[in-house]
Design goal:
Layout (H helix, E strand, L loop, with lengths): L29 H10 L4 H19 L9 E8 L4 H12 L4 E7 L4 E6 L9 H5 L5 E4 L8 H32 L8 H22 L1 H12 L5 H22 L6 H32 L6 E6 L2 E6 L8 E5 L8 E5 L2 E4 L1 H4 L5 E3 L4 E2 L4 E4 L1 E5 L7 H15 L6 H26 L4 H14 L3 H20 L3 E2 L13 E5 H5 E9 L4 H11 L5 H7 L9 E6 L3 E6 L2 E6 L1 H6 L6 H12 L3 E7 L2 E12 L3 H10 L3 E5 L8 H7 L3 E3 L4 H11 L5 E5 L5 H6 L2 E5 L4 H6 L2 E3 L5 H36 L5 H20 L7
Parallel strand pairs: 15-22, 15-24, 22-23, 24-25, 25-26
Antiparallel strand pairs: 1-3, 1-4, 2-3, 5-6, 5-7, 7-13, 8-11, 8-13, 9-10, 9-12, 14-26, 16-21, 17-18, 18-19, 19-20, 20-21
């Protein structure tokens, strides 16, 4: 009999399946069941559209018949992508290589997914084949830093020649435009000598320092997607070529200063943005945990450390207390307690014994386990990483605002320049003067301000966010359309602290001191909460023993046991009615009751639990005031989330959610608007990648930080609100800067068409407009209340 599938997401359902009295359908988890009820609010047409969209997506994932079924997939990181145009270029460049069937690039995540034939191309050859034209590809597990030294060299050399060239302009050329001669009168030969030197210096600035800009322009032409680089290049090259022609014909009216100014100012703006990104990346690298690379395998009865990649089906792996489990498997020896919170989302540790399955990435907190690998060497963590990369690579970045404008502006400027030349030449104006007017149109249509508008605003947003311990991994976040409508929050570690705390110390001071004295020797997650701080005046515990369900030791001549109430009852200890009520109340509220017993009686009942973060209630209320709906997603049971539901009162509460179903929940919530997901653990990685805005928050795992677009390595919930403010304010400044730039265009283009612009005015106007953009971008943002 074939296994039944979840009605919502198509995953296999457990036996018995998850369902309720309101439906005959079956689901893989409570999360999918909740989503099913949520979708009942849709009318028939919306429900039909949802089904059709789901079918369409699945067909799109499989429809490309050009990709052989046995081809290999590989993910690569790519440096140098900064817009949607780069995506198209890298995809087309990769497809031209023999053995590569298809490539899918995303500049937002800086990923490219390559489908290739391993019989034609070796995996290690792929980075070299994808790299080129300023783009550098490298494997996902490589810590590759940007080529900052090369950029700095370009700026130093370009800056030196620009200063020298502009100094010659100031001393000799600008005054001659006003009164016919410079501070030091020059002969025609001397003037030609200086202009020739400026030509050489401008060539170095344009083609060496400005190479990244020219490359971006060429890329945009190759894929027929005009962008800002093309607009800047047209202005710089037009001034350069016209001036080179003037030099050949003996004219002194040259625009090399315009070329140098445009290239240097835009290059400096891009470098500033890049330097902020590099400081952000350095901080991210310090946050990332290392993946599990080695395992202790038992071969011939002896343990030896081997690479995880060298493990084979059937191998037995020994895991000790405090270590992460390296691969999925089944316990064949030992009993222990495993903390699965970062993978499954369950806040409470889980006991494991022979026959139980364990997942890679979870932490063994007590004792030691011997795990046998199944028929395949599988890693839940690695599988989640691959799924997360798939989601990110499937989501292309949106084109920058300035690039979207440039797509229409570039053809318009070129057309206006041609029309200006034709009209003025047709009206009897000499060819050279007509060309000069057309050139002026091209130059003033692209001031430095337009090239600086986006990078400076984004760099400012990244800088001020870093000061507030908020890391934006991608600049594309600032240019996404619209605000977040729904904020989905993981419970454990996000809304709650993720750390157990002693909530009720019981009614006996002596029992608490005895429990603290014993629990100091335990590594169980609950032990730290009970043991508390330093053991300065606690009694001494001896003969400590640890079990899956509790601990014991001798204190002041008493054999004291601390652990689960059921375990104590099995050992013959009596539990009073008041303690029974305390147990049921604690469990009703999602907490953990722990008994302290000696002399045949449970002397006291302690209560341990995971508390809400400070300000969680006010945080949710502030979101509601902003018009945002709040959804809480957790792997805990409905009973364990009852206190949270009463205190926080979210709009949606999804319990019993597995990592896979969290992704489905996000997909369905997106039907109701833009969704941001906030989570901290590996179990949240897929949902973070699937959401419109993923925010990794709190005590993070590497996978959560890798899959999110925003990383907040702190414990202040108001930092999440501050990240929204940073996005809004940065986006506002981008549009303000573009507004200043286009106001400049509206003023200068008519003057250029009329032939009223001279080089000195153009230089001053560009400087003024650039200064406005720089000052506007440099203003500090107020992100905290």
């Amino acid at each position: 009999m074939s296994q039944r599938e979840c009605t919502l997401c198509g995953l296999p359902v457990p036996d018995p399946p998850v369902t309720d009295d309101e439906t005959e359908d079956v689901f893989c988890c409570e999360g999918c069941l909740h989503v099913h009820h949520l979708l009942q609010e849709l009318d028939e047409d919306e429900a039909r559209q949802l089904r059709q969209e789901t079918i369409r997506r699945r067909k799109e994932e499989q429809k490309d018949g050009k990709i052989p079924a046995d081809c290999t997939e590989e993910f690569l990181k790519v440096d140098g992508m900064h817009c949607a145009t780069c995506e198209s270029f890298i995809e087309s460049m990769a497809r031209r290589k023999q053995g590569i069937h298809k490539a899918e690039a995303s500049y937002a995540s800086e990923l490219v997914k390559v489908y290739f034939d391993e019989e034609v191309i070796r995996r290690e050859q792929l980075p070299g084949l994808i790299s080129g034209m300023g783009y550098r590809a490298y494997p996902m597990n490589t810590d590759a830093s940007g080529e900052e030294s090369d950029t700095v060299a370009r700026l130093i050399i370009g800056g030196f020649f620009t200063i020298v060239g502009l100094l010659i302009y100031i001393l000799f050329l600008y005054p001659s435009y006003i009164n016919g001669e410079g501070f030091i009168p020059l002969t025609a030969e001397e003037q030609r000598f200086f202009i020739s030197n400026i030509f050489v210096m401008t060539s170095l600035v344009l083609f060496y320092t400005g190479y990244p800009i020219l490359r971006g322009a060429w890329v945009s032409l190759s894929v027929l997607k005009p962008n800002m680089d093309l607009l800047i290049s047209i202005a710089a090259l037009s001034a350069y070529l016209f001036s080179a022609g003037a030099l050949i014909t003996g004219s002194s009216e040259v625009y090399f200063d315009v070329t140098m100014a445009i290239v240097m100012v835009v290059s400096l703006g891009n470098y500033y943005e890049g330097s902020i990104k590099r400081s952000k990346n350095a901080l991210l690298m310090r946050l990332m945990d290392k993946r599990i690379k080695q395992a202790r395998v038992l071969r011939d009865g002896e343990p030896s450390m081997v690479e995880v990649d060298d493990l084979n089906p059937g191998d037995q792996v020994l895991v000790k207390a405090g270590e992460r489990i390296p691969v999925d498997g089944t316990v064949v020896e030992g009993r222990g307690v495993v903390n699965e919170a970062l993978v499954t989302g369950e806040s409470l540790p889980v006991s494991k014994e022979c026959g139980d399955s364990v997942l890679s990435g979870t932490v063994l907190t007590q004792h030691a386990l011997t795990i046998e690998i199944g028929e395949q060497v599988q890693s839940t963590v690695e599988r989640m990483i691959r799924l997360m990369w798939n989601i990110q690579a499937y989501k292309p970045g949106k084109q920058r605002v300035a690039d979207r404008i440039a797509a229409y502006f570039v053809p318009g400027v070129l057309l206006l320049g041609i029309i200006t030349f034709i009209i003025r030449f047709w009206s009897g104006i000499p060819f050279t003067d007509s060309m000069l007017s057309a050139l002026a149109v091209l130059i003033v249509s692209c001031p430095c301000a337009l090239g600086l508008a986006t990078p400076l605003a984004i760099a400012s947003g990244l800088r001020d966010a870093l000061k507030n311990n908020i890391i934006f991994k991608s600049a594309s976040v600032f240019e996404e359309d619209g605000d977040v409508d729904i904020l989905a929050l993981d419970k454990t570690g996000t809304l709650t602290t993720g750390r157990m705390k002693l909530l009720d110390p019981g009614g006996s001071e002596q029992a608490l001191r005895y429990a603290q004295a014993i629990e100091r020797y335990s590594s169980h997650p609950l032990a730290e909460a009970i043991a508390g701080g330093p053991a300065n005046d606690l009694p001494k515990a001896v003969d400590f023993q640890s079990y899956v369900t509790g601990v014991e030791g001798n204190v002041d001549g008493h054999l004291v046991r601390v652990g689960q109430p059921e375990w104590l009852q099995e050992l013959g200890y009596k539990i009073s009615e008041s303690q029974q009520k305390q147990i049921s109340d604690a469990r009703f509220n999602g907490y953990v009751p722990t008994g302290v017993a000696w002399d045949g009686t449970v002397q006291s009942m302690l209560v341990v639990g995971d508390e809400l973060r400070a300000g969680a209630e006010s945080f949710v209320q502030s979101l509601n005031k902003q018009g945002k709906q709040v959804a809480v997603i957790t792997g805990d049971s409905e009973e364990a989330t009852r206190p949270l539901k009463e205190k926080v009162q979210p709009d949606y509460l999804f319990t019993g959610a597995r990592p896979e179903s969290k992704t489905e929940i996000i997909k369905k919530l997106k039907r109701f608007g833009s969704v941001a997901m906030v989570g901290d653990g590996s179990n949240d990685a897929l949902a973070l990648a699937e959401s419109d805005l993923g925010i990794a928050f709190g005590d993070l795992t590497a996978i959560a930080a890798e899959s999110a677009q925003v990383v907040i390595p702190g414990d202040r919930l108001d930092s999440i609100t501050a990240s929204f403010k940073a996005i809004r304010q940065t986006r506002r400044r981008i549009y303000q800067n573009l507004g200043w730039a286009f106001l400049y265009n509206l003023t200068t283009i008519p003057l250029a068409v009329a032939g009223l612009i001279n080089p000195l005015f153009a230089a001053l106007a560009m400087a003024a407009s650039s200064l406005l953009v720089v000052s506007n971008s440099s203003r500090a943002m107020k992100l905290s209340d």
